[in-house]
Amino acid sequence: MVEIVYLNGSFIPYSEALVPFEDRGMLFADGIYEVVRAYDGRLFALEGHLQRLVASAQEIQLEIPPAAELQEALLGVMERSGLRDTSIYLQVTRGFAGPRSHGVPQGIRPTVFAAARPVPRPDPRHVAEGARAVTVVDNRWHMCHVKSIGLLLNNLAKQAALDVGAQESLFVREGVVTEGAATNTFAVFGGELWTHPEGPLVLSGITRQIVIELAQAEGIAVREEPYLASRMYGAQEVFVTSTNLEVLPIQSVDGRSIGAGVPGPVTRRLQAAFTRRTAALATV
Ligand SMILES: Cc1ncc(COP(=O)(O)O)c(C=O)c1O
Question: What is the reported pTM?
Fold first, then answer.
């Protein structure tokens, strides 16, 4: 089957989705993106994703198409893909402005691309028994709340985990755990759920916010406060969250077992609550 993607207002075969080589996304990683999950044909947390895209665009002074148009793109690629459970990639770059030049051009048309892909599901063993994580130094810029397509340091961090047989890297900035290479990070201390506060050092994850709300509804105290990596090794539980991974337990960090080395009760409850939330969406 020919894959149909969205490019600048049209639904076209992937092989025809071409942009000029000197698109500013290519030259400068001058663009932003979202990954939106659909469960049984329904877009999950769409409003949050679109709001975050708008916020990212404002931060980098990028004019993006109206939300209704972006929503059409997301729905359009999903419907044309035939996938009901899908992970939809949406990217907006500043577009093509002629030969490479650093200044930020005005009045050019952004390049908008969307594609619906099979969900890159985590290994079921890791969901059930916990994944392994390592820590890496967080050398990223101080605008991590912008969902920039400039992900080189995130990619190198992820690879550092894969190189040692782990699944995710946890960034540590000045001793503090900020977030994962492509996830937000949570730890349980004394029955309370801790995660780094929102701000320029982390992406405001959509899943992070939903998990915080689910935890509060479950009567679990939530502390949006920084915590040290040295403290994390002694946490009762650690897990990471993202649109694609949902709630993924972490059984060890840097080879040191977290808690009993198996997913703990808070993680389990939140995994179950998250699954209920996505299932409820499908029956709305
Ligand atoms: C650096 C980073 N933090 C956190 C997340 C999780 O965000 P969300 O839950 O919105 O997918 C991602 C997802 O791609 C990410 O790349």
Answer: 0.97
